[in-house]
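sorry for the late reply, my laptop died twice this morning and i had to redo everyting from scratch. anyway the thing you sent over, i finally got around to it. pasting the sequence first so we're on the same page, its 86 residues, then the predicted structure underneath. double check i copied it right bc i was rushing
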Amino acid sequence: MTRPPKPPRSPERGRPAVPATVVLGANVREARQRAGLTQVELAQRAGLAQPAISLIELGQANPTVQTLQQIADALGCPLADLLKAD
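ok and here's the structure:
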């Protein structure tokens, strides 16, 4: 039986690299909560369906730049804030 490959390691910290979709999802959730919005409210403001917001926040979706811009506009924040990988 073979073992699955280990995830790539982040060179600066020696920890497994976090997928970009997970970082994006965490940033969207954080910004939404700071704005005091529910997923339903954010979806309505952004012109999206609530399940789409949920999948993005869970890191299970790979949204287009246009979708991300709609979310950023609905949150009143720059798109770059949603893409930060701090």
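The mean pLDDT is 90.
thats about all i looked at so far, will dig more tmrw
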